[in-house]
Amino acid sequence: MEATRFSVLDRSRTREGHDGAQALRDTVALARELETLGYHRVWVSEHHGVPGIAGSAPTVLAAAVAAATRRIRVGTGGVMLPNHRPLVVAEQFGVLESLFPGRIDMGLGRSVGFTDGVRRALGRDKEDAEDFAAQLDELLGWFRGTSPTGVHARPAEGLRVPPFVLALGEGADVAARAGLPMVIGDLRNRDRMRRGVDRYRETFRPSPWAREPYVVVSGTVAVAATEEAARRVLVPEAWSMAYSRTHGTFPPLPPAERVEALAMSAREREFYESGLTGHIAGTEDQVADALRTLVEETGAQEVLVTTSTYDRDALLDSYRRLARVAGLTATHRGDLARTP
Prior knowledge:
By secondary structure, the chain is α/β, with parallel strands linked by helices. It has one domain (5-333): Luciferase-like domain (TIM Barrel). It is built from 13 helices and 11 strands. Strands 3-2-1-11-8-7-6-5-4 form a 9-stranded parallel sheet, with helices on one face. It has a two-stranded parallel ribbon with strand order 9-10. Helix 1 links the parallel strand 1 (5-10) and strand 2 (41-44). Helix 6 packs parallel to helix 7 and helix 11 (284-298) crosses helix 12 (312-326). The relative contact order is 0.15. Residues 330-338 have low confidence and may be disordered.
């Protein structure tokens, strides 16, 4: 896996007993650690009105992360383009690239607000996602200076900020037609993920942004001294997801020991146990084998890790062990600013 890049998406998940401000500070602190470990990039996400996630303004948070680091690439995974005007997105990334030249990525998704209430607050509806390809083309046009309106995006015009498409639903097809790198996260359904990757490669059209297909596979990876310790890293997120599906509210992450002591209903238990499967977790040797298989199956150039848990020490230990598994060395660190 020496040729495979490893990166991290941190969702700024809140934890029981800790507020949103702490979650954002945790993201910035984690980014510093990831840089020292040799990870290629760190991304932040966009969620609106979700009680368990503090990351609602990804370009703002990306600026804080970039200011706190020196070499690692920084970006979004992603800005949900249907929620915004393409001109504003171009301007925001133009500012980021101007402040932190050569280090900014523009990960873009097609999801709209999580609930009807959030969509109303954003002034959007589900149909807005159907215009994603057109919105993407308009956004890239602001960087090329090809807008027919006579307006110029300052300071974005003429800058090169690498765009990535989050391949949810039709995202793989959009990425292929636009000639952009693709991020696909579907470890729980490998067959569907492979079909998406194959379709992307088969229909990819070279563009000024990418001459060849570039595949990033994303998912949860937990590494620990024992298989059981790695499983416990997954417990808080698995319960949070199970709770959201049975109660309609996405709660902050609880400690693993409290989850394991809960008396769950049959439905909660079903969702919880399901949430513990489909990830890559185990000892360093086990994770190395699983990642090797994943990269061989998909031909991915990069793995984007999206792990969330309550115990920050366990999370950092997992990323340190993963860095060893991936062979992240000073050679990789010297390559951090190279794109895509």
